[in-house]
Specification:
The protein is α+β, with helices and mostly antiparallel strands. It folds into seven domains: 186 residues; 107 residues, no CATH class; 62 residues, no CATH class; 123 residues, no CATH class; 309 residues; 132 residues, no CATH class; 81 residues, no CATH class. 34% of the residues lie in helices and 18% in strands. It has a five-stranded antiparallel β-sheet, with helices on one face. Strands 14, 15, 16, 17 and 21 form a five-stranded antiparallel β-sheet that branches. Strands 20-19-18-22-27 form a five-stranded mixed β-sheet, covered by helices on one side. α3 packs antiparallel against α4 and α7 packs across α10. The longest helix is centred in the C-terminal third of the chain and has 27 residues. The N and C termini lie far apart (86 Å).
């Protein structure tokens, strides 16, 4: 049995997000199969080995599930089924130091320019070097997939792929089909089309082949060889040459793009460019007929005059002429071999003469091999020592450069690293003849990379270190500055951020030296503290409110505070303090929208001092200006916000919304366009997303998750006030209890006033008013302010409790949150003299009346979301619509069968419809819990709805709400049906809209079927609310009554009425058989 190999640990943080989103992941174990160690895949949840066809996608799961199973320690690694991927696998090309030692593999990886990583196996018996693999999006271009001799393989669905995260070539996965074709041709040269031999430059698209011209000078190539070279070198050139304009907006744009390529390839000769263009696939007489005879010539002149770069011919002409002369063989001095052999014989220690080693180091390979063979014939000759000594002499034979040659290029602080403006290098020190020398090894070519500054970004809970890194090309051009996180700095992947201009040398060791060189050459750089959120932050003992361009404090605006926001979040900006008129105009918006919506703007800056746990949701049909109203509220925090430019929408993921809401601290955060549509799954997922986001905001905490190392991930949730709009409300009574729901009706918004308000919003009127309000809060901020807010909230809430008698327990508290914001803003306006006390009282009293009206309306809306009511209404609906029925206690036809899900055949008999969900005696109902719950769920799903609670929870809520007539320790009740105890839910038929039966139940057309010792006048009919005595009357034909013994004498349930014509007692079958015999 072979020694078990070592395997690399999975570095999950390095795996590209594009792969993590792949839905077909698994885990694997290292197992001995009797011949070798294998890596069979397993399902991470079931723990079973994947069986059957490996491409059965139902066997796979998500990345998170696979990673969690791996981290639990039961598996060796993770993998995925490469659906939609092309995977290249190169074996035995990486040494123990993770350096690529196979030149062919290195060339393939360089051409691929896509995500690549090391294979999982580190070492094993008989294995000295490992492998690597790279990944594309796409399909394998040919049939061949394996070269066993070279250890190369490429596949797109024949095998699952192990993933390690030990990256080699960046973290971006390419989908370039041309690159896939080039790499495929390099891996399997025999599959690449051969170049045709053409005597004349016939440059039609079909004549051009995809094969590199070889190591020849560009200027010596024929035109077709140059074109072949260009087709292989530039992936975007072949589609244009062959007439494909899919990457361009028009034919003219594609024509000009090809012209520029031809100028770059063949030089600045307009006539030559025009001739080549006419031989391309873009040129057709018919298409260019209407463009004029000289269209091509004019376009060629324009392309040449507008081309400012270096043509390919100019580039190659500027390079030094290569020396193709064969090196002269080193002449072995006369007597060299004899001297060496003599030395070997005289000195058993084999301290080889330096001069002899120098000569041996200069021999060409054939000469050295011949000498080495002769020496190896000597018994006891240390061949290994001799080879090492010659190799060392070869290194010392390099022309030395004295250290004094580099005083300007290498500073003492950066030693041994330096740069000369064109490249970055490392100096290696060595001694020779008692003197110190340095050899120069290049690390980065094409320019110089430096760290400009360090940024410490505070997101409110943790700090992130970011390094701003710049690059300058050899020509002096400054490239865009890139930001790199502190944890990514040691990985050195950022060295490849400018692949077109800056080229780090290959190899892991040199990459580490390159990273250290950048750090040393950069010297001392500044550290900048920045904030990645809006809202309050205590800086130097003072409360400051952060926005995109600075911070607002009690003493005005602070532009020296750095805030880093992304995307739409940069619109959170209030750099200018407003005016008295702006404050009044902000309050005037109450004529355009409800106070509860407007107050969200005033409430959000108070979240730092008094937690908010409610969101505002405005709903209504499309085209009634919902988004425009929410945009006016949002514009209090930035004049750039409008109905088409808001912080977020419900199309984003829950994590993305949570992250942005976390950044929008102490501010309004608008989430637009809640519009459930599509399949039932899509609708259900949207409602779940809304539940997650809104519930997290109310609870003040996000959904907890774990990092690969077992530590808890940071959670994100909205830290301000969420304002949302949509055509429907999110489902769930519990969730709606955390919302202020505002139903907007068509025609309720004045369009003319709305337009005026939008102009003021665009001019920054509302943002200026908010800046004044925030400045006032900054002056008041502190413990006393917090206590005053809390006391005022309780006062407002208690007032609303007295006015909202029918409201949900949370409703008064919800509206009090928004009214607290309005009350504080009115206090600010009065304090500053912007409004009078009478105006304040007017606004607040109107807001109270509106809150009471909206709160009572919202209570009725919430009752429709009560799961118990939904269940009972669903039972009535499915029975009346034929999806279910109830039987009598003998599983037969109940009284009034049409009311209980039965249908008439038009003459006399009745048949049940749908499935049986329970039993009834005309007064009470006993539901079968399992059958009823399943029937309701199926019925609701067919209409795009679903109960959000389990059956057990539902039965408990029915008991809590007094819907059950009787129950035991559990909500269900044992009922004897057909002689068996059956667990049921006991309800009144009145709950389903049917009146309880108060007449006696008689056997069909039977005069004397009474319990023993009773007469007609003795029979007492009982119901839930009424007990009265009535004379029996016959029942109409077609209606089969319940057993009289069941109704009048419950203690005698099993007693037979002994009447063969009775259809309804427990001995119905006995009666029926007797009747058959009689007939």
């Amino acid at each position: 049995m072979q020694q078990k190999p070592e395997y690399r640990a999975v570095l999950a943080e390095n795996i590209p997000d594009e792969l993590k989103a792949h839905p077909y992941w698994c885990v694997w174990k290292s197992e001995w199969n009797g011949e070798k160690w294998t890596k069979p895949p397993y399902h991470p949840e079931t723990g079973r080995k994947l069986s059957g066809p490996r491409d059965d996608l139902s066997q796979y799961t998500s990345f998170e599930t696979a990673l969690e199973a791996y981290q639990n320690g039961n598996y060796t690694g993770i993998g995925l089924w490469p659906e939609g991927l092309v995977v290249g696998d190169l074996d035995k090309c990486v040494d123990s130091e993770n350096t690529i030692v196979n030149e062919e593999a290195e060339a393939i990886l360089s051409a691929a320019r896509t995500y690549a990583e090391l294979s999982p196996t580190i070492s094993g018996e008989g294995e000295t070097i490992g492998g690597l693999r790279f990944v594309f999006f796409g399909k394998k271009p040919g049939k061949k997939c394996r070269d066993n001799k070279r250890g190369f393989e490429i596949y797109d669905g024949s095998s699952y792929l192990t993933i390690t995260g030990h990256t080699l070539n960046g973290d971006k996965i390419s989908d370039d089909a041309d690159k896939i074709a080039v790499v495929y041709g390099m891996m399997f040269p025999s599959t690449a089309p051969k170049s045709s031999s053409v005597s004349a430059p016939n440059l039609s698209p079909s004549s051009v082949q995809f094969s590199p011209p070889g190591f020849r000078q560009f200027k010596d190539m024929t035109d077709i060889e140059k074109l072949e070279w260009c087709l292989e070198k530039y992936p975007d050139f072949p589609p244009l040459w062959n007439g494909d304009i899919s990457g361009h907006d028009s034919h003219s744009e594609a024509d000009f793009a090809l012209m520029r390529k031809l100028v770059q390839l063949f030089g600045r000769d307009e006539s030559r460019v025009a001739d080549f263009f006419r031989q391309s696939g873009l040129w057709t007489e018919e298409r260019h007929k209407g463009k004029g005879k000289d269209y091509v010539e004019k376009s060629a002149v324009k392309a040449v005059s507008g081309f400012t770069g270096q043509t390919t011919e100019e580039y190659f002409d500027s390079r030094p002429e290569p020396d193709h002369r064969e090196p002269e063989p080193v002449k072995i001095p006369e007597g060299f071999e004899a001297e060496l052999l003599k030395q070997v014989a005289d000195k058993p220690g084999y301290a080889f003469n330096t001069d002899i080693l120098k000569i041996a180091a200069e021999l060409d390979p054939e000469q050295f091999q011949d000498l080495y063979f002769k020496l190896s014939l000597i018994k006891g000759f240390p061949k290994g020592d001799f080879k090492k000594a010659v190799a060392k002499a070869k290194r010392q034979n390099k022309k030395p450069v004295k250290s004094e040659s580099y005083p300007a290029e290498v500073s003492p602080d950066a030693f041994p690293y330096g740069e000369d403006g064109k490249e970055m290098f490392m100096l290696k020190r060595y001694m020779q003849d008692g003197n110190e020398f340095f050899s120069r090894e290049r690390l980065v070519r094409g320019g110089v990379i430096r760290i400009l500054s360090e940024e410490i970004v505070d997101n409110g809970e943790a700090e992130t270190e970011i390094y701003n890194i710049s690059a300058t090309t050899a020509s002096g051009r400054d490239l865009p500055v890139k930001s790199v996180k502190q944890e990514d700095l040691p990985k050195a992947q950022w060295l490849f951020l400018w692949p077109k201009y800056i080229h780090p040398e290959a190899g892991y060791k040199l990459r580490d030296h390159s990273r250290l060189a950048v750090q040393c050459i950069s010297g001392i750089y500044p550290t900048i503290r920045a904030y990645g959120f809006t809202g309050w932050k205590k800086i130097n003992g003072k409360y400051l409110y952060l926005c995109n361009s600075g911070a607002i404090g009690a003493d005005g605006f602070h532009s020296d505070i750095t805030v880093k926001l992304d995307g739409n979040m940069t619109a959170y900006d209030m750099p200018t303090l407003g005016t008295k008129e702006g404050v009044r105009q902000s309050l005037e918006l109450s004529a355009l929208m409800p106070y509860s919506l407007l107050s969200a703007a005033y409430r959000s800056p108070l979240c730092e001092f008094f937690k908010n746990d409610v969101s505002v949701f405005i709903s209504g049909s499309t085209g009634i200006f919902k988004s425009e109203l929410t945009a006016l509220v949002q514009a209090h925090f930035g004049s750039e916000f409008n109905g088409r430019y808001l912080p977020d929408c419900w199309n984003s993921t829950a994590n993305s919304i949570g992250k942005r809401g976390f950044m929008a601290k102490d501010a309004v955060f608008t989430i637009d366009e809640f519009k459930p549509s599509g399949s039932q799954t899509q609708v259900r997922l949207l409602h779940k997303k809304a539940d997650d986001v809104l519930r997290d905001a109310a609870n003040g905490s996000g959904r907890g998750r774990m990092n690969p190392d077992g530590s808890l991930k940071k959670t994100f949730y909205c830290r301000g006030v969420i304002v949302s709009s949509g055509e429907d409300l999110p489902k769930g009574q519990s969730l709606q209890a955390r919302l202020i729901s505002i139903q907007l009706k068509p025609g309720s918004v004045d369009k003319a006033e709305l337009s005026k308000a939008q102009e003021k919003s665009k001019g920054g009127v509302y943002a200026g008013a908010m800046a004044l309000y925030i400045q006032w809060i900054a002056d008041k901020a502190g413990k006393d302010f917090e206590q005053a807010l809390h006391a005022r909230f309780i006062e407002i809430r208690d007032s609303l409790y007295d006015r909202m008698d029918a409201a949900h327990d949370r409703t008064p508290s919800n509206f009090s949150q928004m009214l607290l914001g309005l009350d504080t803003f009115l206090t600010f306006a009065v304090d500053k003299g912007y409004i009078s006390q009478e105006e304040r009282n007017h606004h607040f009293s109107n807001a109270i009346l509106e809150a009471v009206t909206l709160g009572n309306a919202q209570t009725s809306d919430q009752s429709s979301e009560n799961e118990v009511d939904i269940f009972l209404e669903s039972i009535s609906s499915l029975v009346s619509s034929g999806y279910g029925h109830l039987c009598n206690l003998q599983n037969g036809q109940p009284k009034n069968p049409l009311s209980w899900g039965w249908e008439n055949d038009g003459i006399k008999f009745y048949a049940p419809r749908g499935i049986q969900i329970g039993w009834t005696d005309g007064s009470d109902v006993w539901l079968n819990p399992s059958a009823a719950f399943k029937a309701v769920q199926d019925f609701n799903r067919s209409q795009g709805k679903e109960l959000a609670v389990s059956s057990g929870t539902l039965w408990k809520r029915m008991r809590e709400q007094g819907k059950l007539l009787s129950f035991g320790k559990e909500p269900t009740k044992q009922k004897k049906i057909l002689g068996k105890n059956t667990r049921t839910l006991h309800l009144s038929c009145e709950i389903f809209g049917f009146e309880a039966e108060v007449t006696e139940n008689l056997c069909y057309q039977v005069e004397n079927c009474y319990p023993e010792n009773e007469t007609k006048s003795d029979i007492s009919v009982k119901s839930n609310k009424v007990t009265e005595k009535k004379q029996r009357t016959p029942i109409l034909i077609g209606s089969v009554p319940s057993s009289p013994s069941e109704v009048q004498n419950p203690d005698k349930e099993n007693e037979c009425c002994n009447n063969p014509d009775c259809f309804d007692c427990e001995h119905f079958e006995v009666h029926t058989n007797a009747r058959k015999e009689e007939l």
